[in-house]
Fold this protein.
Amino acid sequence: MNRTTRLLLPLLWLLCVIPGMAQAQQQSQPVDNPSYSALADLLENEQSREKLIHELRTLAEDTPAVADTAATADAGPSATQQLAQTTRDIAEGIGDQFTVLANVLNHLAEGQVAGDNGKFSMGKLLHATLNLGLVIAATLIAFFVLRGLAGPVFSRLDHWSLHGAGKTPVLRRVLCVALAAVIDALAVGLAYVGGNLVATFAVGVTGEQTTQASLFLNAFMVIELLKAGLRMLFSSRYDGLRLLPINATEATYWNRWLALLIGLLGYGVMVLEPLVAIHVSPVLSQGLNTLLMLAAFGYAVGVILKNRRRLSAALRDKANQSQLTASKISLHLLARTWHWLALGYFTVVLVLVLLSPANALPFVLFATLKTLGVMMVGMLLSTLLSQTIGRRIRLSDELRRKLPLLEARLNSYVPNGLRFLRFLVLVGVILLTLNAWRVLDLATWYASEAGGVLMGRIIAVAFILAVSAAIWVTLASLIEHKLNPETGNGMPSARTQTLLSLFRSALAVLLVTMTVMIALSELGIDIGPLIAGAGVLGLAIGFGAQKLVQDVITGVFIQIENAMNTGDVVTLGGITGVAEKLSIRSVGIRDLSGTYHIIPFSSVDTVSNYMREFAYHVGEYRVSYRENIDDAIAHLQNAFDELVADPEQKPYVLEALEVAGVIALADSSVNIRVRIKTAPGMQWAVGRAYNRLVKMHFEQAGIEIPYPQSTVHFEGSRQGEAPALKLERASASERHTGT
């Protein structure tokens, strides 16, 4: 009798006795209807009224002490006291069971113990044992024969799992293990049917099945199905039908140990214990249950302690081989604590079974099965996700040609999404395990308003993130398709490249902002203050960073007016070069010497673009005063004709030579200007080629291209007469000696 029962019995006795006493008192005394008038008379009398008031005040003063005493009594023992009391109850219960068990064995030896059907009879026990042995033999023979017939099928599944083509390796293994488990379960079911036939028609009364046969067959079905599930994890003969990544030696060891433990507990609790209760004594059956639990617990503890270091070393090796940081940390942690977890599990099972033998064992069995199932499913999903994460996505050559960045983007986003799914799998395994052991009640929590709202929000946020990622991948790929010259539309214009690049940057900022805002709104966070705060912050930034705002506004108008694009040769702020990078705030220019300049748009007053529609090479050529001008112009035309005949320069020359004529009579030359219309950006190359040809034609025609000359005057008389300068040709010897 536990403590709760000892407390409830007096309460039940009081609840039964007090109404009876009250009823007896009511039956012995007639009902006094004029009690109200007697109370009124009592209150009218001054002395009796004062006496009643005094007694009520006395009772009021004594009430707190009584209440404190009752509260102290109701508070109950502390957690430490409850633990000590539970431990003491378990020890006392085990001791009492052994004492009673010894008495039962003593009486059994004297033939004084009676079962459910009367006095104990050894003959009946032997007859029942013989019949049960026949059923057991027939069932096991049928089972092993069926398993032998299924051997070739298992071998083929094992070979396809290890060496088959197609499908992911983990999916192929899971499929083969599932088929093998179905065949294994079918063998158990057929053996169960065969045992039922033998028990019904060959043993005992024809057409009836004995109790002991039913107990064994039910236990056989449950235990062998558990062992079939165990073989899915630790298949010792077939490497391809083993879910756990361990070798055959380890699988054989753990399969044998766990199968022995399941058989000991299963057949002992489900067969031996009920048979002893039926044919010998219920007390002996209870003691046998305790012995079985203690034996199984001792056996489990011995195996755990024996393999503690070996299994820890194997887990550390697996951790070192893993390429994922999370797996390494988890396996190292499991290597240090697995034996404590196993010892804690078996200790909890032992305590629960000893405290409540009837209810604890089914609960522990189903909770363990649920935990193993959840962990296996989680491990398989995690393995599948890990293999998928490590596998690079390959697109077709045509798609990779049109969208060169799509493959890299998918190989960046998809693995991250799969890692998040793997984390969700881990969280789900932990929650379902706690739910299996009734630490949490997920069904009740999900049915509650808070649980439903939270799950809805989580799903909504995940959906929003997935949709945002899909939108970004789609639009970014479309932009890349437009920018790619190999898509069939040719090289896009510079303006298209600039605008699409800016649009992609703006799209990224807008999409991230909207996604964050919508996700926060779905999580129940009021985004109104955030938007208001962002507006105030933007206003403050506008006042504090006017230069930045001016940069942005000017950049927007420059892009709207198409003043320049990436690749244009421009002059900004006194710097001439190629515009390599344009943003909404500044432009990066590379000048002729290779120096890279970043010019904010706020400092740009004028944009000089040399690459709009067409350009001109403007050349000024000087000839001597003594040359024929028309002849010089004719040779300039000849040089242009040769330029146009050059296949490398012809595509860039748009019109005929434009001769402006003589534009200046300089000090030592006559200047002639010509102009050549070229493709934008090619005026410098065309001009260099034309200058080369002009020099060659002038040299062939003997046309002098003057250079700066000086006149030397010698001092003479006041009348301007100067002595003549005598020039003589120096001889070779004089030139050699320098005289």
Notes: Confidence is low (pLDDT under 50) at residues 1-35, 65-76, 111-120. The first helix runs from residue 3 to 28. DSSP finds 23 helices and ten strands in the chain.
